[in-house]
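Illustration 12: SDR family oxidoreductase.
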Amino acid sequence: MATNNENKRNEYALVTGGTSGIGYEIAKLLAKDGYNLVLVARSSDRLLEVSDEFQDLGVDVLLLDKDLFEANAAREIYDELKARNIQIDVLINNAGQGQKGKFNEVPFERHIDVIQLNIVSLVSLTKLFLDDMVARNNGKILNLASVVSKTPAPEFSVYAASKAFVLSFSEALAKELAETNVTITALLPGRTDTDFFHKADLTDSKEYQEHKLADPAEVAKDGYQALMSGKSRIISGAQNKVMVGMMNSMPDSANAANMQKNMQPSDKEQGERKERPGHAASEQEREAMGKEKV
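Figure caption equivalent — predicted structure in token form:
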């Protein structure tokens, strides 16, 4: 049971992928701000672990063990919350994955999984909960895009294209809803210290091994502040703002060439390589799940 908290809002925030990485840190900020949580992930064990942490902050936590790689998962989530008479005031579409490899060499099923998770589930959850938000003229949605949304990415093509969709979709909705009290915010993180690279088979790449990784808590803070202030998008981190500015000034062919270089194997010696996430919750998920999709 959650402890009593005088500051509790009696409002609910739904977070997908809230058991590690940026999603976990956003969920923590929401809980500290008094929002009750609905956490969605595939691993019931990890959901239980993080639930105990968030309940200690004095909020109620509802756990939904749902697989967003499945086409009917979004509708099942919505219907279950409707049946429980739970209104979602804040939606965090955080869950997402990528897959390194040349398009023709990656299994078809993996491409479809990434599209289902990064685009179809995100659009479905947005549609279902946004309709209710518009009807009551109140609500907030945060969609996780990426700085990679600004460039083609050879050997990471489906992921980059999916995040370009998320950014375009989010900014279009933000304009459509400008005269309402419903806001849509796109968060564009860069390289972040989560288990994302492990799941995407990117741990051997220059992208992971030869660049500084952002702290998920700092990325979450940027996204949360933008969400609460109603901004349509936020690029997290000064270095990423510079990077996006450079991408905008260069032709796509040059940006694609730079991205392809970063997909190649790193020459770093074994003892100098990153091996595990430095972010505690992401490392715990790695231990619990290995490479299983969550």
